[in-house]
Design goal:
It is built from 9 helices and 15 strands. It is of the alpha/beta class. The protein folds into 2 domains: about 170 residues, Hexapeptide repeat proteins (UDP N-Acetylglucosamine Acyltransferase, domain 1, 3 Solenoid), CATH 2.160.10.10; about 70 residues. The termini are far apart.
Length: about 260
Amino acid sequence: MFSRIREDVGCVFTRDPAARNVFEVVTTYPGIHAVLFHRVSHWLWQHELCWIARVLSNFSRLVTGIEIHPGAVIGRRFFIDHGMGVVIGETAEIGDDCTLYHGVTLGGTSWNAGKRHPTLGNNVVVGAGAKVLGPINLGDGARVGSNAVVVKSVPENATVIGVPGHLVGLHTEVSAEREAIAKKIGFDAYGTSPDMPDPVAHAINHMLDHIHLMDKRMETMSEKLHDIGVDSSQSKIPEMESCEIVSEADELAEVKPAGIDEIEH
């Protein structure tokens, strides 16, 4: 348990640039206090000291504003940023390296006994005010946008936003091709599109797909022409990285009307 506490404190420095030293984190971070209290209350819960575990959990809620049921299972290096208003239910399960922001609820949708709260995989991030409800699964690397309401399972490496939550980003094999083409033409389309429904980025993604397909078709056509004896070397397309882009201002500067020097002087 003590090794986990050290990891919980240490992970703050990688996820909060405001953290300066261990003493400050241990004494002033309510998210760390809530996690430390939960480690103890969960140990008591596992040893059937349920009443004492609930009392300690309630004291933690009064002090930190964060309510974590002692029955919840939480993995290593768990971080709650700010923390006020976070609620984690009894049967919730949280993997390693997860991050929750203030106002997050991992709640249930029924009064039936048994599993009724979410399960979060590793490296999951849940934004401020989001509600993840029911016995659903959030895959490894999933992200939930602020104020989203998620009631269905989320695949790995996906981003969910809105009410009700819907997918807006998912890493696939095509994404790798888009990234390679974007790098080739000097534009990173993934600065915005993975995490938000940006219509411009969405259109650019389709353009990148189109460019990739056209490149493959042109290569195939060149190979066929070469096979039948047609020399297509003159129509070879230069690499885009070596292309020099001349702005309109530079072109205008090079072509000056007669007598422009006299006018300038």
